[in-house]
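The pair is listed for reference:
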Amino acid sequence: METRPQPAPQPGRQAHSVRRPDGQPWPLPRGGGLSRRHVRARVRARAWARARSGVAVAVVVGLAASAGLMAGPAWADGQPGDVSRATAAPSAAGGQVVGRAADGPDAVALEKALRGLPDRDATAALVRVGGDGSWRGKAGVRDLVSGRGALTDARFRAGSTTKVVTSAVVLQLAAEGRIDLDGTVQEYLPGLLSDAFGPITVRHLLTFTSGLQPGANLGPTDGEGYERRFETLTPEAVVAASVAKGPYRGPGEGPGKKQRYGNIGYTVLGMLIEKVTGDSYEHQAAVRVLRPAGMWHTSFPGGPDPRLHGPHHRGYQLLRDGRLVDATEWNVSDRWAAGDMISTTADLERLLRALFRGKIVPQPLLDREMFTLPEIDGATYSAGLQRFIGEDAKTVVWGKSGARPGYATAIAATRNLSRTLVYSVNATEAHGELNPVSVRIIRAVFPLELPR
């Protein structure tokens, strides 16, 4: 396992905290970042090395001068923030809900879904509903220290929605004849897997049916992983740990036999993209997907850089010991092609439209791979997307969710784009992509069976 020690604190950074409603402190490290667009990251460590050698970092305004002046957020049960459909009305906690509705979306249900933020489940939320009618909403605060209202254009960690982009790149290369979906990892990346593995095809990787076990990680994000959040775990180290475990064994096991969702297959796909193209994964994703879709505010960290650049909300994670900590700055190099993308709700909506309309992956490959499930019992995932069936047994929704500490995201749409949904929730529990706020948002848009 390759790791890098946590960087030393930057000059001038001090420990500060805000207070919970019960008067106890939440230690919240300061942080921020300069606004900078970067979609090409061919040398992954370069950006963070420059930052550590002198690039100025913007800090949270007012922390040093007024750390004791910020009251805790209004999280009392039964006292939700105010909601306004037509104007940006401040909530009781300093956040806002801004909505615009036309034919289709249930504006009342959507406003109710966002009402009361920040609360124990999330500090902010951004929602975009499109298709037959549209609705745009935001609620909560951009950070718990200043209490300033949420930003419509905030950047956030998009988590596993990155897999949609990775899948699209692979399918483009397949359409060009540069990748054979029935070709094997052993052929494309000789020496990566041990002799213990049977043939694993590119399609197996895309559809989560490879039989590869999970790779290395730095520990639970609500415990050890938080303490090690600035360490670097390379894709090579992640895959090596998976290979060392060997394949899943037992009756009914083997490539193409069972579908198990995870990150490892998409980490290998990132390696495959680089091997076939001779280019970085990040650059291939940018030129093949981000730019054609018009995703000009979407980027990749480019390695160990833990910061979010440009306007963003602070993300908070509830730890096992009860502390709510600032998780905004986090080295996500271990997620790479499986989940390190940074985006906005507007950009992810552009991705949905361009992808579903066949502007990214050509037909008929798009329908055959992204909108068709493998013939495996219980399969719900295609090549990068997940299928959901509505409670009415008629509505079919395709989408992908993702979560990183402090950030939960999802994109979803009907195949004909008659209804689309993109949201980003600053959830305080990263383990549950379907946190209570996310569930309320989804149920307000699609008639899906979800936990309440």
Notes: Residues 24-61+153-384 form a domain with the Beta-lactamase fold (CATH 3.40.710.10). The radius of gyration is 22 Å. The first strand starts at residue 17 and ends at 19. The CA atoms of residues 409 and 424 lie 4 Å apart.
